[in-house]
Amino acid sequence: MKIGIDARLYGTAHGGIGRYTQELIRNFTTIDSATRGYVFFVYSKDDEQQLRADISAHIESRVRFVLAPYRCYTIAEQIFMPALIARAKVDVMHFPHFNVPLVYNKPYVVTIHDLIIHHFPDERATTLPKWLYKIKLWGYKKVMRHAVEKARAIIAPSEFGKQDLLRFYNIPEDKIYVIYEGVSELQITNHKSQINGNTDHQKSKIQLKTKNLLPYLLYVGSFYPHKNIERLIDAFDILRAKYNLDINLALVGKKDYFQQQIKKYITTNYKLQTTNCIFYDYASDDELAELYQNSALYIFPSLYEGFGLPPLEAMSFGVPVVASNASCIPEILGDAALYFNPENAEDIATKIHMLYTNITLQNQLREKGFAQMKKYSWDKMAQETLPILELPPVQTPAPR
């Protein structure tokens, strides 16, 4: 059997989907002792080189790389990917994201991480003009419907995600497989830190102290509107003003338009100093490890998630977690987090203050966090995913 995988979003530079794709391929090639062949569709030669370095040596002879230099969510992807896949003669494709070409009707499995745009069709979540965003939204819904309805099987990373799919689409329930993601083992190695522009690894922690940034609350992720960072800023101001809490906030995520909007929100609405809020741009795995390890608490304020890796990564470092009670987050974190109403800045601030000032509660959540994060394994995820690629097709009922 020859399995094709769309690996154009391979690597942590592409966020959660990039890490999912990376761990999927790494673990597939580690556990597969059969005679399956693999075709990886990569965006660039650099990506191919990185992927070659990551896969297990025992499977190299059964792997083929195909250059697919087409950006996701583009017309080029829609036009050229189907022919490229056809020439590779794969038996089944795995698309780790919803962007399956509309004319692709060969057997495939798709992972639907979330339905964020269904819930938040927000023009603030784009840099496009209003008219163009409406076209993009129309295209997204059309591509998503095709991906879901024509798939041989759908993988959802949580039970919440499965029920969300059933809410929006008339598809058989047994076509959807809930497969939890894993927690990556992040470690500190030599690196060049970006904290406040610093480029010396040895000085990164010291600089946090000399800049009075320790202790700090930590957030890791994007700055899209559904991530609820504005309300986290509101809560942070309450912590400092109402509770007189001498603590700081580190926001780790890609430097882009949405990060700039958060910076603008801070300067427009508050008198917070730059030494109180630190924006740490894209962080490599070892930089993330250091940031997690030195944080006082991890804060996860999101309004919607399909799974939610960062709080589990924080738990792996023994960092107590304060999190939103929305979407799948309680399902994934269980009783290992203190929850707040993400739409109420006062409640966010109250729960952060409660945990930060209660050492006993911190220790309890720290121990529960270690146990909770051990429930999730990339190896187990791959073990459960591989057989799904060999399933026979499931018939889709006629439209209502």
UniProtKB/TrEMBL annotation:
Residues 15-183 form the Glycosyltransferase subfamily 4-like N-terminal domain. Keywords: Transferase. Pfam families: Glyco_transf_4, Glycos_transf_1. GO terms for molecular function: glycosyltransferase activity. Signal peptide: none annotated. It comes from the Bacteria. One of its GO terms (biological process) is lipopolysaccharide biosynthetic process. Transmembrane segments: none annotated. InterPro entries: Glyco_trans_1, Glyco_trans_4-like_N. Residues 207-369 form the Glycosyl transferase family domain. PANTHER family: GLYCOSYLTRANSFERASE WBBK-RELATED (PTHR46401). This is Glycosyl transferase family 1 domain-containing protein.
